[in-house]
Amino acid sequence: MSGMNNIDHNTSSQSDIDEIESLFHISVQPAALEVPRSVPPARKPSSPPRIPVSAPLLPPSFVSSSNQAFSTPVQSGPTPSTGAGFGGGPQYNTLTEPVRETLKRDLLRVATNLKDVVLPNPYREDPGKALRDWDLWGPFFFIIFLALTLSYSATENKSKVFAVVFATLSAGAIVLTLNVQLLGGSIIFFQSLSVLGYCLFPLDVSALVCQVNNTKLFRSLVVLVALAWSSWAAYPFVSTAVPSSRKALAVYPVLLLYITVGFLVLAND
Amino acid sequence: MAGAYASLASEATGTVPAAVESDHVPHFQDSNLQIFPPAYDTRENMTSLFRPPNDADETFSQPGHGGQGGQGIPGPNQAWQGYFNVLSYRPYFNVDTVDVTDRIKDSLKVDVGFVEKTSQNPDMYGPFWICSTLVFVTASLGNLAAYLSYKSKTTGGHWHYDINLMSSAALVFYGYVGLVPLALYFLLRYLGVTSGVFQLWCLYGYSLFVFIPASFLSVVPWEIVRWLVVGAASFMSAIFVGGNIRTQIRTANDRWLAIVIGTVATHLALGLVLKFYFFTYFQHDAL
């Protein structure tokens, strides 16, 4: 018995790390059910070197109940972990998946969020449900795209145009969020940035369309439609966040920001 | 909120001193928001304010505070955190839509009792968004006016959208509303007059509102119209600011007239800058 204890002592730290690695194998490749229970101390890791994952990523119960966890196969599928991440969605153990999967998942999320924000949606009025799975990739792409388009089509000071548009949009989104919070509303900072960024999508489309045709009338019409669409998309989120006596105070700056950007799109030659 | 104005007005009239009295009327001091961050000073009035949780160590280490646990003066290691917390700025945005529109109307009516009305509740919403609107309006209308005057001439150079107008508009307006009241506040303190920096910011911010319609009217291509419009707006705005300052400091200091003239002059200078930079067009030569 003492021998067993000695062996347990010597192999405890190594076997913890190997347990964790084995759990990764199990969650990522559900077919591999065979799990080594005791490990020789001098074993080299068979997988390519990975970022060492510290124990707190998994719930401590996994580490503490070491042997029991192995007796039954761990359920396949995503292991809920306590890692920080985007709002709301399932937390995947995503370190070991191929990049293609990550990109696909992020793009899908951007598309879903875009659909939720920009198209008619029964949950628009409810800020709790409106954009549960918010992310910041979408807004980032839209802001960069708009700034690039406007900068590309400008005839002078291209880099300054890019800088001004980018600064206006990003600082504007932050200031708008702070505005709602200061007026007494309660919104999540990054969720609000996310919504305001997604609402830029119609203006992006209009900037692209304006490249095609250069007449002022056509541009004015396109920009007007895009403005109306953007404002319609952003309005419910902002107006439901503040007390009703201050609704106009919260909504007006949003309109101001989109009109500013719309004017920049319109006036670009 | 309208009721609060009525009570303030009656209170204010009662405090106008007789000529023999040498004490000035501390209108600026009425606001509870003088101390910043206000969360640490006026707990009783603002129950919805956030207070950062008090460290247990702090209450233990300072025996004087033991029983209070957070009331009274917080420890020195906590006061600076208020500056970084968005919620401690909330009292300065405690206005409803109807309040903001009332204040804007007062500025258009050139109401010299404006500071008295807003001394209890100066808001930063108005100044900030009026400045932002003004930046956008002058930059875009300046470009539009340049475009129209380029179009109206049969021969002409080349017109391009001047993005510099937007960044310089931001610099001019935010700089003016940010720095001039601050300088005035320090000047008044130097001269021994108590004043409130937030009330001054509120005053200057709302005084700029009249430039927004003036910018819209300055789009017409006739110089004389532009001069008239911008001149009228500058005068209205300058009298608004000067009148309010005069009301506040007339009894406080012998040099009040010089200060009032100084504020009026800087305001007129702003109007001039607006006219010359945004609404005067030089023909861009063909490139």
Give a topology summary:
The complex is a heterodimer of chains A (269) and B (287).
Chain A (H helix, E strand, L loop, with lengths): L1 H27 L31 H5 L1 H6 L27 H20 L8 H4 L6 H17 L4 H25 L6 H10 L2 H12 L3 H24 L7 H21 L2
Helix pairs in contact in A: 6-7, 6-8, 6-9, 7-8, 7-11, 9-10, 9-11, 10-11
Chain B lengths: L1 H13 L41 H6 L14 H4 L1 H4 L12 H12 L5 H5 L6 H28 L11 H27 L6 H11 L3 H7 L5 H27 L6 H23 L9
Protein name (chain B): Protein YIP
Membrane topology (chain B): Multi-pass membrane protein
Pfam families (chain B): Yip1
Short description:
The complex is a heterodimer of chains A (269) and B (287). Chain A is mainly alpha-helical. Chain A is 64% helix and 0% strand.
Characterise this structure:
The complex is a heterodimer of chains A (269) and B (287). Chain A is mostly helical and 269 residues long. Helix content of chain A is 64%, strand content 0%. Chain A is built from eleven helices and no strands. Chain A has helices at residues 2-28, 60-64, 66-71, 99-118, 127-130, 137-153, 158-182, 189-198, 201-212, 216-239, 247-267. Chain A is globular, with a radius of gyration of 26 Å. Chain A starts with a helix and ends with a helix. Chain B has helices spanning 2-14, 56-61, 76-79, 81-84, 97-108, 114-118, 125-152, 164-190, 197-207, 211-217, 223-249, 256-278. Chain B is an all-alpha fold and 287 residues long. Chain B has a domain at 93-279. Chain B is globular and about 60 Å long. Chains A and B meet through helix 7 and helix 11 of A and helix 5, helix 7 and helix 8 of B. Chain B: Residues 51-74 are annotated as: Disordered.
